[in-house]
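Troubleshooting log. The previous structure file for this entry was overwritten by mistake, so regenerating from the original sequence record. Sequence copied from the archived sheet and checked twice against the printout by T.R.
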Amino acid sequence: MRPVNLIPAEERRGSQAPMRTGPLPYLLVGVLVAVLVGVTALVLTGNQIADSKDELVQLQREDAAAKARAERLVAFTQFETLYEQRLATIASLADSRFDWERVMRELSLVLPDDAWLVSLNATASPEASGGEGEGGSSLRGSVAGPALEISGCAAGQEAVAGFVTALKDIDGVTRVGVESSELPAQAIASSAGEGEAAGGGGNSDCKTRDFIAQFSLVVAFDAAPVPVAAAASGVPVATETAESSSTEGEEGAESEGG
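Regenerated output below.
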C-alpha cells in the first residue's frame, strides 16, 4: 500500500513543505550575479587601460631615445653625403682632365719650318675663350670640348694647307677649322671692304712679303670630355700665348722664297 500524507499543505514541515517566499530570492541572486559580472568586467577593462598606458609611455620613451640617437648621427649622415659629392666631383675632374702639355709638345714637333705662330690660345670650353675679338675665333663656339685657337703666318697658302694637315697628326685632334687664310693683298682688300677680319689682328706681322699668308685656325678635340663646372664657370683650363718677332718671320720667308 502506498502511504498518503493527510496533513494539510500549509501545515507541513521539511522537504515536503511548499515555497512561501516567492521569486524574490531568485531575483536578488540574479542582480548580485549581474553586479559581480559588471564589477569584474570593469576591473578587467581598467587593468587593460592601465597596461595600454604603460605601453604607450614605454613606446614614447623608446621614440625619444631613437630621435636622440638619430640627431647624434645627423652629422655622420651629412659627412657621408658631402663625401659622396666630393668623390663624384673628383671622379668627374679625373675623367675630364686634358693633357695640354702633351698637345703643346706634339704641336712643337709638327710645326713646319715654313710657318710660325703669332698667338696660341688653348681653352677647355667655348665659354673660356676670348670670344670673336682679339685672340678669339667665331669657329670656337662650334667646338664644345677643348680646342686650340692658332694665329700665325706661313710662306703661301700651300704652307698653310700643309700645316693644317700636320695638325691632324696630333693625338686627339678630330678636326681643324680654317677661320681665315689670306695673303697681304687679300687682307688689305678685306679690311677696306668689311673692316679687319675677326681673329686677324696680327695681319701686320705677315705683310713682310707678298706670298706670306696670315692664317687663323681652330683645332678641335671633340672626343675629350669636359667638366660641367669648368664650362659653367668660364675659367680656362690652360692658356698659352706664343709670340714670334717679325725678324724671325722675315728670315723664314726669305729662306723659303729665296
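The radius of gyration is 51 Å. Archived copy saved in two places this time.
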